[in-house]
Amino acid sequence: MIQTRILTFAATTVLAGASLAPTSALAQIVGNDVITALNNQLSYQGAAITGGDIATSGDTIVITNATMSVTGEDGAFPIEELTLEGVQPDSDGGYTVAKAIIPPFEVSDSGTTATIGGITVTDYKIAAPDETDVVVRSGLFRTMTMGPIAVSEDGQQGFTAAGVAVEVGEYQPGQPWASSFVLSDFAVDTTVVGDPQSRQTMAALGYESLTGDITGSASWDAASGMMSAQDFMISVDDAASIGLDFSLGGYTAELVAAMQQINATAESEQAAGMAMLGLMQQIEIAGAAITVTDASLTNKLLEFFGTQQGTNADGMRAFAKGMLPLGLAQLQSPEFAAKATAAIGSFLDNPGKLVVEAKPAQPIPAMQLAAPLMSGNPALLIQALALDIRAE
């Protein structure tokens, strides 16, 4: 997928873009050790950058015409130009790059082209080759900005965004570590995206263009193994927003180290995936919540489907509420079905917020949910996760 490749390019290529042959001019500035350290760090991300030309001036390095490969991805991604400013050795044997810059570029795949208006990363840390801290050797940085962004398919532009900004808090070993991101001012042209039927539906709803933002924050406590995401929010103007919060246990430094080792040694994406699946057995679900906040979409949908059924929004609302008990009975959990019927009915009457929350008394190993999922009895999953639903 072109989106996956763009994110991989941004998160791995930019942050690690100096990994070239040790005969390069980079060794004249910071020595051959930086190449060894950087190659070692890249291996934990399953990536490698090769080839290219290097021009140096003081502590600034300009790399041109290099390529990057990622385990599991077909082919290599070209890096036409990457500038590293303020490259300095650190006392621990690693290096710090004050700023890494990629100028505007394009990535194309199967008729889809993404145009990126440049990427800048600040305070990127290249760990020493013998670094054992899994966070440090993952490639620490303070900020990353990318954009503006435009994606077109077969010459028709369907998506734009002002850009992406990521901010990472200062890392202190043994302390919780936080980060946040925003994809700002996105716009989706629904007159060119999707199949003809979906385009017609979006036009009928009055959404020839969808605009909004995506935001979120996360924190990780390596000591306790608790990882949480807060306020991951997709907000669409004059429509609705969907928010996600979750907490996972068992995400320890040892787990991350094992994942890094898999990336460094796996010969294929399939092999890495199977190994990762085994590691996921120690992940626990401590809690999660999905929140839908209406901003006019609900009534528009009721009016749209009501018109198709020969009625209006009020008629469709009454019909939907009447069908709720029948549909929710398939969950085989009368108590939850009653809660859901009341909550969804209230939301339809007065669209505001609808919250579905999993709040088990104790964290549940993720693999323990396999049996309820495969049982064909949704009530077992509802009970295991202690699911709740409410309208606000």
- The helix count comes to 11
Major sheet attributes: 20 strands, antiparallel
Radius of gyration from CA coordinates:
25 Å
Bulk shape: globular
Structural class: alpha+beta
Write down how many β-strands occur, each being a DSSP E stretch of 2 or more residues: 20
State mean pLDDT (0 to 100 scale): 86
Stretches with pLDDT under 50, minimum 5 residues: 1-32
**Strand-residue fraction?**
35-45%
Q: What is the share of helical residues?
A: 25-40%
Rounded to the nearest angstrom, the distance between the terminal CA atoms is 37 Å
Can you tell me about this structure?
The chain has 392 residues and is an alpha+beta fold. The chain has helices at 2-14, 27-30, 32-43, 196-205, 253-265, 269-279, 297-308, 313-328, 334-349, 370-375, 378-385; strands at residues 47-50, 53-57, 60-70, 77-89, 95-102, 105-109, 112-116, 119-126, 143-146, 149-153, 156-161, 163-168, 177-189, 209-221, 226-236, 240-249, 284-294, 353-358, 364-365, 387-391. The chain has a 20-stranded antiparallel sheet that branches. Strand 10 (149-153) and strand 11 (156-161) form a beta hairpin. Helix 8 runs antiparallel to helix 9.
Provide key terms for this protein.
disordered N terminus, 20 strands, globular, alpha+beta, 20-stranded antiparallel β-sheet
How is this structure best summarized?
31% of the residues lie in helices and 39% in strands.
Secondary structure elements and pairings:
Blueprint lengths: L1 H13 L12 H4 L1 H12 L3 E4 L2 E5 L2 E11 L6 E13 L5 E8 L2 E5 L2 E5 L2 E8 L16 E4 L2 E5 L2 E6 L1 E6 L8 E13 L6 H10 L3 E13 L4 E11 L3 E10 L3 H13 L3 H11 L4 E11 L2 H12 L4 H16 L5 H16 L3 E6 L5 E2 L4 H6 L2 H8 L1 E5 L1
Antiparallel strand pairs: 1-3, 2-3, 3-4, 4-5, 5-8, 6-7, 7-10, 8-9, 9-12, 10-11, 11-13, 12-13, 13-14, 14-15, 15-16, 16-17, 17-18, 17-19, 18-20
Helix pairs in contact: 5-6, 7-8, 8-9
